[in-house]
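Training component of the fellowship. As part of building independent skills, the fellow (R.M.) carried out the full modelling exercise for a liganded target. The chosen ligand was iron/sulfur cluster. The inputs are recorded below so that the supervisory panel can assess the work.
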Amino acid sequence: MKREERVVQPEEMKRQEAFIEEIREMPQKPKSYYVVTYGCQMNAHDSEKLAGMLQRMGITEAEERDKADFVIFNTCCVRENAERRALGNVTWLKEVRKNNPGLIIAVCGCMIQEPGMAEKILKQYRFINLAFGTANLHCFPELMYRTLNTDRSVVVVEDRDVIPEGLPIARARKEAAYITIMYGCNNYCSYCIVPYVRGRERSRQPEQILREAEGLRDSGVKEIMLLGQNVNSYGKDLEGGMSFAALLKELDGTGIPRIRFMTSHPKDLSDELIDVMSGSRHILPQFHLPVQSGSDRILKMMNRHYTRDQYLDRVRKLREAVPGIGLSTDIIVGFPGETEEEFRETMALVEKVRYDSAFTFIYSPRVGTRAAEMESQIAPEVATRRIQELIALQEGLQQETMKRFVGTEEEVLTEGLSRRSSESVSGKGRHGISITIAGTVQDVGEILRCRVTGLKNNTLVGERI
Ligand code: SF4
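Fellow's submitted model of the complex:
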């Protein structure tokens, strides 16, 4: 199916607003809702938008999933595991419905956008009341209205590249907020399904982003996280486009204390961006730079468009420009055809770079991607052994790299009470590493200064200054 061109529709948003008003007045509307989120920060933020719309409909959040009258699963399909878990949990709700016959079950997100999934739901999961894809998130009020007025399943999956503006958002945290700066991805890494389910890259207008950031600043938000599948190519699709580096510079000027972003593609990490980071106070000294593999041949098979040396050059430049920068990465092991030697190249790269953290994955074939068709898929026991070796290496190195913070001063944005003690709070330091310090519930959501005194597992321990 051919994707439609980008559609930005303020009138459409007004139409959806009218459905919200209709639902508010409906006696048969659910009283409580629960959103179950799988996957990445983009999905977490989409869930905040779902919650925002539900609250505007006059439906309140339930404390537990099994007590809600309306449960929506915001799914992910990047890994087979997430998909299986989501479908298992949706099926479990069918049991819950025996005690709550009015329960409405909805499913949305990337999984629904997969080819054939809509048909599968209509045939095999007929107890699902509502299902819609990523391109239909902004139409949720209309779809909900239709669901409340029919006994049949409402399943809508469209292939459109939209930029919805002005959706209500119920933010999960008061002190830190997500801002989506762009949607979709053009890269077609051979293992990844995202471009097929999230569409082509499309950037929000810089003025919209700045307005949102200023509004958050005025409401007391201390940290913003800019989101996109590949934030480094922000603006390339805009007329007279603004680069991501230029956007960051503008945001730096808003006075929001802390600015973070993810995810970055090494091939698009420009010198301009590195320069902006080095001259800024508010852009935090941290960078998530997925490498995926240390082997040039595997990187080529992955369609990543950089070599190992080019990646290492970016790391070197970042470290020169922002000394002590916190670096994290994503790595896939067991990509089709990965030899033992190529896996060793990944291990050697990890040893050389010394990341502060690494998200490691076993390659998971996704139907419709090029890698899923490749020959020489790696045996699960080989991939498992490789990931165990990689995790052991990273854990050992991490303990070493984190020692560089001991004795330094850090600034923590506290997220909550520490899991181990009610007399300490924890949050992220400027370099993206978790820090625990003495504190109470009154300190949650504050930026506190501390001196790092040691480390425990993967967390730094500090003393308040
Ligand atoms: S950059 Fe590659 S891995 Fe990331 S979302 Fe796009 S296609 Fe997927």
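The panel noted the following from the submitted structure. The first strand starts at residue 4 and ends at 7. DSSP finds 15 helices and 21 strands in the chain.
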